Amino acid sequence: MHTQEAPAITDTQTPAAPPAQTAAARTAQTPHAGNPSRRALLLGAAGVGALSLAACDKPAPGGSAAAPTLSLPAAPDDLVFLSASKLAQLVRDKRVSARQLVAAFYARIDAVNPKINAVVQFCRERAYQEADAADASLARGQLLGPLHGVPMTIKDSWDTAGVISTGGTQGRANFIPEHDATVVARLRAAGAILLGKTNTSEFTIGGIAGLGTTANLIYGMSKNPYDVTRSTLGSTGGGGAIVAAGGSPFDIGTDFGGSIRGPAHANGIAGIKPTTGRVPRTGHIVDYGGVFDAYQQGGPLARYVEDLVLLLPIIAGPDDKDALIAPMPWPDPAKVDVKSLRVAWYTDFGADDKGEAAKPTPEMIATVQSCVKHLQSLGCQVSEARPPELLAINDISTRLREGDGNAWQKRLVEKYKTTVPGPARRFDYPLLKTEDYTELLEQRDAWRAKMIAWVKDYDLIVSPVQLGPAPVIGSREYEGKRGNSFTSTYNFTGWPSGVLRAGTSPEKMPLGVMFTAQPWREDVVLAAMAEIERRFGGWQKPAL
Predict the structure, then answer these.
(1) Would you please indicate which residues are annotated as catalytic (active-site) residues?
(2) For residue range 78-87, what is the model confidence (pLDDT) as tens digits?
(3) Where does the record place the Amidase domain (predicted)?
(4) Assigned domain for 10 exists
(5) What is the band of 279 on the pLDDT scale with cuts at 50, 70, 90?
(6) How far apart are CA 153 and CA 19, in angstroms?
(7) Total-model pTM
(8) Residue 485: is the preceding peptide bond cis (ω within 30°)?
(9) 360 lies in some domain
(10) Distant-in-sequence, close-in-space partners of 246: CB < 8 Å, separation ≥ 6
(11) 3-class DSSP assignment, residue 72
């Protein structure tokens, strides 16, 4: 049954505690303890001033209740544009309440979402109930966790208990899960409050050909907050857009071939795809197992790198369900000596016997080079060096995805009883012979071995994300060009890879740069991103 938004709870209503079943599920899936750097972030909030914000929650159709106008203490910038880390500290210090945060972010969503179509499901009544319960808990001296009272949104491909979770496919248009995905349960157990779900492409792997933005047949297409004629990229485009616009401090996306890093680039925010095996996929529309098991990882998107550092340890670690997840220690980015890093960089895929790869725009190349020059100025050992056979592995991966006639995606359609799949969903690719398919798998693994041998000489790899800024919706500007996306390389290897805004195109659109490291070295990626953010500024507020 399709549920409607419930109206907000006013201050005169009695706060309700979260349902016992949900609380028990959250407790059962609490992750391992965080590291000292995360606690240090929470204790390092900036000074506080006073700012009055009108934070009224918009009632659902037929509803009348609304959150009151609130006078909110905040840091010098608008409350909704602060980092999750600083918001958590404000709540801990009782300078702002969880209810005030929920009201402020809903007000921002109501102001911007009609223009960008990023948030597609809400749980307002529950969010206010959980906020009131969090405030009451803090008043008793009980801290729920490092995200106590901090709002969040979640990509609609993750299951969220009691909230419609479609995965962008028609067969789940009214599906309400009974349980949270592992990452969602961990965030809620850490004290985060779900505001709603963000738009995704069908199954997170496309669905409406020709648009070039996050879109599906249920909710339509999402638009870029810096220019609503332009793409959010995908498939975490809804999450990228609402975080950039200030409607959420952070979102959790997934990345099968660039679905975190592409939206981070397009929407001018920070995002990271962790190492394969770091974050459980349990409760995701495409979960774990199969030929492409190693390709997909979940990870956070936020406006600030410090929030990626805060969030990743919370959602990482085995859940005893996703068999690929390893109990690896979390390395502290604060301990990385950025000045000593050995850096490789490149701006295109080179050439092979089929011709040259596409070239990025001059501004994209210049943005990468600016980052590299800054790292060099710090003392990093810098080399212009391209990984081996990039065009070849992209061709191999394409043939693998299509080699079974796309039967693996057809099984998804049948599993979720989707009778009207997205127009881009094809099931008629030519079938490869078994011996040809297994040979491709062998070629893929041989390339992975070459990559491990190549990367031993480097700690950090710097490259573009795309050929240029987010394209105009429907333009097909980069479609069909070989080497048009730099992200999928590191899905094939499984290495940690993050994106941060470091420049601006002539069209005034964000330009992201990608930072990749050896397996399990998220600390190197995040430390480098933090340094580039310090130098070039990172996220900039859109004039939406």
Answers:
(1) 155, 235, 259
(2) 899 999 999 9
(3) 101-526
(4) no
(5) very high
(6) 20
(7) 0.87
(8) no
(9) yes
(10) 78, 80, 81, 108, 112, 541
(11) strand
